[in-house]
């Protein structure tokens, strides 16, 4: 929320006055500069221009402009493993000295031996079970501090970039473009909600309350006179596949106008979104660029895209061909 | 979210140009006009002016300005019964012809006999069980339509007003004042989240995603080719008492700066809020006005306020004396 001007003044009244402002309308930038001209970029712009046009039959009032984004593989890279998988593995390694039994117990021994494929193949559910095993009994404040420390230091195994530098520049531009057109932007991810919230405002401009994700149950208690919220080793909600429309309904409370994903884990979110009345928009990012990022779809254990590829045309969902449609994949690195 | 100007234009560039705008600064209104001058009003204004002052040590950045409000008894009247209790009773009566067994089964027979006290005494938990019994197997879209129809027609048994006209004028002004100062305003209520969301934007200016409440579990499915979300007869979450800090953490993802309640159901929310680092604000509405609304606290089955009264001073929470502090209780009725 932007800070609005203060219309209220206490204890004294401001007399009427007339002020003349001189404003410079700066040269307007083309939207979506890292998107190549083509059907995907055109579909986004046509849709946004239509639903924001008050004279259009398909006008959508601003308070109904809701856009939901998957995170892994849609806003940032998920190969060779989910960012959260790397986090969990690092946590297991950090805690291993206190748990000698982990050397001979699965899935901990696989993690300690660096068998990333075995961990990733278990998907979000296995990851969340590992999160629970390593974080039970911790307060929400403590967990946030651990995530913040990790996300500002851990580096991608292939590129050496921070994970937050593995976000997609075209999607950052898309988030900005939609918000400039009155959309509220939400993340709806199978990943852990408390793993994302400490950094989504800074990286994506998405505040914590607009992040929907998987979660563990929590309990409020007063410890030594201080109220705390404890993370419990019990699943609360899996925000993936058929869980995504449920998470959207429970958290956002209205059906999105636009939904963006990249895998079959996003199929139901797009299905739910685009089945609504009035104008709706569904888009799938197809990872086709082995040189600049990764190329994967039907055979991949991470980010498998099969039903979405088969049904996109019939359902009117737009496919993004990363290699063709994106002139740039990752943001330029800021000088450090 | 307000609609922002469109900075982007497709397919053509706007040349630099200079435009002169002439704006009239209208006479600024005093904030909180329905609040009488006194310690409660002053505490709100002092706090807001401090946390929005960039030169103050207690400055709070806009993205951390979160204010949470209980609903029943804090934003609208809860006497002689919760609005949601009236809704449930009306639903039971509407569905009774299809359920002849309800005539002799509790709690349905009490509802059908109009024994409001027996229903209300069960609190939010009993209400939610009745909601589940009467709404199982219904889609979220169907439930929203029923709530919308009810809330625009049902009237308060004592005043004959619509329930949405039983909101507190001073609190509407407070919501506006906080939003004008960059706060995001949230409802955090023991009531059902899907009972509130269809009307909170219109009545309070609070969008559905900023409403936190109790909920039932839901399931996504495809019925006759159409995706739907079904409300299940199973409790998901009770957002009351020690549930409120948990609901805040799960949904909002950060600790509020300000919290407003009226009963001991809000105790833990204020406790959690005001125990945070930096400037925090807790306020309890004390119902002291039998003539204009109701007077109740320690002995009430609805909105019982006992721990909050006992501990407010020690915890630095501000008590609002409705009779003393509010010059007006309910909004003027719009001409219909």
Automatic annotation (TrEMBL), chains A, B:
It holds the Pfam family HAD. InterPro entries: HAD-like_sf, HAD_sf. Gene3D superfamilies: HAD superfamily/HAD-like. Keywords: Hydrolase, Signal. Residues 1-28 form the signal peptide. The keyword Signal applies. SUPFAM superfamilies: HAD-like. GO terms for molecular function: hydrolase activity. It comes from the Bacteria. This is Haloacid dehalogenase-like hydrolase. It comes from Stieleria varia. The lineage of its organism: Bacteria, Pseudomonadati, Planctomycetota, Planctomycetia, Pirellulales.
